[in-house]
Amino acid sequence: MNAEPHSGRLNLFACGTALAVSFLAVAGGFRWAVDKQERLLHSAAPDFCDAKLHGVALIREALSRPDTLVLFGSSELIPNVPFKGVDFFAEAPTGFSIFPVGKAGTSALSVLQKLGSAGTELAGKKVVISLSPSFFLAEEVDSKYFEGNSSKLQLKELLWSEKFSDALKQDVARAMVKYPKVLEGEWILEVAMDAVAEGGYLNRILLGVLKPYAMLDLSVGRLQDHFEAAFALNDPSYLPAANPFKVKRGRSLNWDDLFRKAEQHSTALAAKSARRAPNVTRARGTWDKQFMASLRKAQEWRDFELVLRLMKEAGAKPLVLSMPLHADVLEAQGVSAVGREEYGTRLQQLVGKYGVPFVYFRDHESDPVFFVDQHDHIGSKGWWYYNKVIDDFYHDRLRPKQVTAKSELIP
Amino acid sequence: MDLDALFAKRPLLKRAALVLYYLAIILTLVLMYGRGDFSTPPFVYQEF
């Protein structure tokens, strides 16, 4: 009988000691993980691992650095072509490097959750958003694109962030609840997302009740994210290079010379691939009306406006780039220049509403070597234009004319 | 070997074994539920 209290105290002591040791191990591990992210961030820039695309720690780390510019894009970030932004700026030739975030199918809604998850880290930060016109050409983006790019952790960060207004969060939630698959398996996220989307007094009370648990859940998620990022960076391929990342200051590049090289690369590749002309299915201009009607109804406009609203509320300094449409492909489908003009006009109106600098490479829609294929994947020449504009943006050299036309950039 | 007799003779060993026992429980829980999950519904991008 007397042994029980003693045994209870002993167990309490052992459990307490084990918890304290575990806490110290987690704290040490957390420090190790953060140190790894700080040291190896630039080595991870060209990679597209889950920890980078679906996590938060690496995106926030990149945003926190003055020598790193985060570029949100889609499948154009993937093909390995000479002059690709991440490689071109890898050694920070003019004082900064690029941290691309995005993969195939990263539509505006995916960019929205990634940006939203960065929350306070966006304030005053320059970010670049590269748009793929094809997302705006269909009334609805394939739901699998957002599902395949979704991240529960990023959604939780956005949902519980105090940086954004209730009105914005409600509109975001209304857009997200259309994709129940991305919320599956996380009851707290499902309930909270529905409550935010519906709004109202009772739902506000429900959110207040859920919040303490949700914040605890989010803290565990953040911790896991730091560890996952560090484990991903633990790969031997991320070992610090012999010449560690060192920013070069005050250097300017010979853009004319680089342009010639980029064009040579693109021309040589085009000659090798011998791209076939698209099959003509309709006479010129016969599909303009239908094209414009479909374009106007595209859900991507609403989603992209949410991105612009979010960046405005976060105090970010974005630059929006859009690659041109494929004139030859659309001409063959019966869409003339009149129909194609609608895309640039609408985009300019929308972006202009938020006072965001915007560069649309419209005059390259018939350039046979701007792209690397007949999708929204730019080649070396296209990347030269992107790199030049991005460099000017980073160094505050974007001129008003440059913001709407490409002609200023031609050497 | 009789563990009770051993622990009765060496109380410090008993404490250490208990701490290790609780650490093993915590470690098992971390291994079971601790990993971050970035899995997404699958999709196949057709445009490459």
Explain briefly what this protein structure is:
The complex is a heterodimer of chains A (411) and B (48). Chain A is α/β, with parallel strands linked by helices.
Q: What is the distance, rounded to the nearest whole angstrom, between the alpha carbons of the first and last residues of chain B?
A: 67 Å
| Helix and strand sequence of chain B | HH
Largest sheet of chain B, described in full? none
* Number of β-strand runs of chain B: 0
Q: What distance separates the N and C termini of chain A?
A: 92 Å
Mean pLDDT of chain A, to the nearest integer, reads 90
**Number of helical elements of chain A:** 18
**Share of helix among residues of chain A?**
55-70%
pLDDT < 50 runs, ≥5 residues of chain A: 404-411
What is the residue-averaged pLDDT of chain B? 83
Q: Which percent band covers the strand fraction of chain A?
A: 5-15%
Question: Regarding quaternary structure, how should these chains be classified?
Answer: heterodimer
Describe this structure in words.
- The complex is a heterodimer of chains A (411) and B (48).
- Chain A has 411 residues and is of the alpha/beta class.
- Chain A contains 18 helices and 5 strands.
- Chain A has helices at 3-44, 50-53, 57-64, 85-88, 108-118, 143-148, 152-160, 166-176, 180-183, 187-198, 201-233, 255-273, 288-297, 299-314, 327-332, 337-353, 380-394, 400-404; strands at residues 68-72, 97-101, 126-131, 317-322, 358-360.
- Chain A has a 5-stranded parallel sheet with strand order 2-1-3-4-5, with helices on both faces.
- In chain A, helix 4 links the parallel strand 1 (68-72) and strand 2 (97-101).
- In chain A, helix 13 (288-297) packs parallel to helix 16 (337-353).
- The longest helix of chain A has 42 residues, at 3-44.
- Chain A starts with a helix and ends in a 7-residue tail after the last helix.
- Chain B is mainly alpha-helical and 48 residues long.
- Chain B contains 2 helices and no strands.
- Chain B has helices at residues 3-9, 11-33.
- In chain B, helix 1 (3-9) crosses helix 2.
- The model of chain B has no long low-confidence stretch (mean pLDDT 83).
- The interface between A and B is medium-sized, with 41 and 24 residues.
